[in-house]
Here is the input.
Amino acid sequence: MKEQFASDNGAGICPAALRWLIEANGSGHEPGYGDDRWTQRASDMIRALFQTDCDVYFVFNGTAANSLALASLCQSYHSVICTPVAHVETDECGGPEFFSNGSKLLVTEADSAAGRLGKLTPDAIEQLVTKRSDIHYPKPKVVSITQATELGTVYSVEELRAIAAIAKRRHLRLHMDGARFANAVAYLGCHPSEITWRAGIDVLCFTGHKSLMGPSGIGGMYVREGVDVAPLKYGGTGVQSEHPERSIVIVDTDNEEASRQALAEALHVSEDAGW
Here is the structure.
């Protein structure tokens, strides 16, 4: 089998992308954990492409980008509104729910005119937001759309702005799964910014092996300036990974009173920070 179109994961990396990876790999030692010049350069190129000073995060793939983005925007008692054919609903093995500690995916009607096209509409979003208001209902927090959709349809600029308007009115964040984002840009003949932050999109997730023709296992997301995303975990390498409000207490066995006072202060800070 020479070529197949069942999955982008079946194809290799394009020569231009491979050349830059080889050049970066052979460029010598660099600081780790995203502080290298190559990561900075790639992030700046994404900011230039979208003409905005956004935050850029590189992750394992598109599923990781979607899961981490939605989890950072939600708490466990929140919900995400999406279509029945959304990738986050059908093909991510519960990743968004897992990383958010239980946020629920609320799907719209499948047999509506828009549903048959794999699209959300303002009316469908409004229906789920106002369906219930009791404390037991998972409170909608995010609207998730796919551009282009899983069925190959494309949201127009006007459709995106209408969805963004209802999301803003209902205090919801707007997430876009951009696995086929380049196809949508080519089809609409517009600038990438016109169907993202200029249209009201808060977070865009993308893959490296589809639109960017990179190797499998690469993805990322950009977060619109002014949108706060909460860290999911603290920890890792070095003291910089510590929780900003968390203290390290060193006990001095020769000065019991000083140690007791330091511990009391650390506990007080931890309680204030929610630890």
